[in-house]
Amino acid sequence: MSGHTLPCCKIGPSILCADLSCLADECRKMIHSGADYLHLDVMDGHFVPNLTFGHPVVKCLRPKMPDIYFDMHMMVQNPEKWVESMADAGANQYTFHVEACEDIPALCRKIQESGMRVGVGLKPGTPVETILPYSDLFDVVLIMTVEPGFGGQSFMEDMMSKVQYLRTNFPYLDIEVDGGVGPNNIDVVAEAGANMIVSGTAITGASDPSQVIALLRNSVENAIQKSQLER
Ligand code: DX5
Ligand code: ZN
C-alpha cells in the first residue's frame, strides 16, 4: 500500500522513558522541539516483559493535541483485539508485531478499514522474508534494533541489512527503526535507507531535545538527497 512518492524524513520520539505522570506536557515538549509524530509504546506484560499504557490513555491525550500523528507501537499478544479501541481513541498508525499475529492479511485489512495506517513490526530475530507475501497490505515496516520491552538498550547495527533489503526492493515504503537510535548511529541508519526514526532516551534524556531532533533529521535528509542523486 505504500504510495508512489518517495518517503520523506520523519522523526518520532518515543516517550517511554519520559516522565509519564506529565504525559501531555512531555508530548508537547517533543512537538515543540521539532518532532514530526509521536511513537507511543503499548506493552501488555505478555508479548514483552513490561507494562505501559493502553487506549484509555491515548483517548485522553488526543484532545490535548488534535493534529499530532500517533504511531501506536503495539507490543502485545493478540494485536487484533485492540484495533477498534485504538482507532476510536484517535490513533493514526497501528504497528503490530508479526510474531504476535496469527492472520497477518486479516489484521492488515482490519486496521486499514478502521482508518489507520498499517505498520508491521519485526523483532530482531524475525527475518524480513516473513512479511514479503503481504507487501501490498502494509504502509510501514518497523525494524526493531533492540529486543522490544525496554528503553535505553544498545542499538543492534546488524539489523541494518533488513533495512537495506527493504529500501532496495521497496523504494516507496516507509521504513521505521526503533531501539537505541540516536546521534551516535543515525548515519548508518540513514545510509541503510530508514526514513521514520524512533528515538527515545537519546531525545527525552537530552538537555536540548530540539538539537538532537535536528541532528537526526539532518542525517536522514542528507542520505535521502544522496540516494535521489544516485537514482
Ligand atoms: C522498546 C521500544 C522503543 C524504545 C525506544 O521496546 O519499542 O520505542 O522505548 O527507546 P530507546 O531509543 O531509548 O531505545
Ligand atoms: Zn517502540
UniProtKB/TrEMBL annotation:
Gene3D superfamilies assigned to the protein according to its UniProt record, in alphabetical order: Aldolase class I (3.20.20.70)
Active site per database record: 41, 178
Keywords annotated in UniProt: Carbohydrate metabolism, Cobalt, Isomerase, Manganese, Metal-binding, Zinc
InterPro entries linked: Aldolase_TIM, Ribul_P_3_epim, Ribul_P_3_epim-like, RibuloseP-bd_barrel
Organism superkingdom: Eukaryota
Family classification: Belongs to the ribulose-phosphate 3-epimerase family.
One Pfam family linked to the record: Ribul_P_3_epim
Any GO BP: carbohydrate metabolic process
Lineage of producing organism: Eukaryota, Metazoa, Ecdysozoa, Arthropoda, Crustacea
Name under which the protein is recorded: Ribulose-phosphate 3-epimerase
Cofactor detail note: Binds 1 divalent metal cation per subunit.
